Structure formats: structure tokens, C-alpha cells
Amino acid sequence: MTEHIQRQRRPRTRAAVFACITAVALVADQLTKALAQTYLAGHRSVRVIPNMLSLTLVHNPGASLGMGSNMTWLIALLAIVACIVLVLLASKTDSMLWTVWFALAFAGAFGNLIDRFAYADGFLNGKVVDFLNYGWSVGNVADIFLMVAGVGIVVTILCNVPFRSTDTTEDGATGESE
Description:
Strand content: 5-15%
Oligomer: single chain
Structural class: alpha+beta
Order of helices and strands: HEEHHEEH
Shape: globular
Radius of gyration: 19 Å
Strand order of the largest sheet: 1-2-3-4
Helix content: 55-70%
């Protein structure tokens, strides 16, 4: 393959990776939430790991740890902005690692945003389905994706992994290999 064709394929490969990670993560998030609503309804709690993890259904109007429960519309708007920014960042990077972190963060934010729309009875006032009870907080699979992405981004920054390759040609394409 010529170098020009290889350069054209790299963004498509990263876009495909972003889409696949997002799709798998969203399916996992929404499926687990549906199962939680089916099997944990009626204030039922299932102990998984004593004193560490139980399954308890909670409909959370707020953000992490229930903060901002009276500002649901603002949390939803911030999630929309975050999703847009994550897609833009993913389209600007030429690093597969950064693409993976942005995809996980997008899937987490979008998964919870789906709940805010699906379970709303007014303007952006829906509640997020949480069911993973850690004793000090109740979350969901989307929250796990957000946490993994956040830690991954911090580690990637600390390891000085570049967001974009400095090896670029005159037309702006990179010479980095994947």
C-alpha cells in the first residue's frame, strides 16, 4: 500500500475503534440497567461481596454521590457538551490510546445521558439508573467506563503519550504508524 492510502486509513481505523468501543459499552450499560430494573425492583437488594458490593436499584436525579439532584437539567446539558467535546477530541487525535479513552468516556457519559432522556417527565429532568452499591456510593456500568477513562487519561498524560504525532507532512497527515 502506498503511504498516502495508509494515512487515509488511520483515521478510519480510529473512527471504527471509537464506534465499536462505544457500541459495546453502551449495550453493556443499557443491558445491565434493564436487568437491574427487572430483577431489583421493589427495594430488593442482592449481596454480591459482603461489606463491599451489593446490587440495589436507585434512580439518581443527581450526579456522582447524588450531588446536584435539584440541577438535573444542568447535569444533562453538561453531559451533552461533554459528549460533543469527546467526539471532537477523538477526531483530532492520531493516537489509538487516546481514541480508546475518549470512546470509553463518551460511552459512559452518553449511557447516563440516555437515562436522563428516557426517564424524564419534564425538560431534561430524568434520573439515572444506578444499581452497583459499594456501601458509600451507588453507580452503574457507565460510571465504571467514566472512571476507567479518567484514570486512563491521567496515566496517559503522566506517561507523556502525545495527543497528536509531531511527525506531520505538508498536507497535515501524520507519518505515525499504528
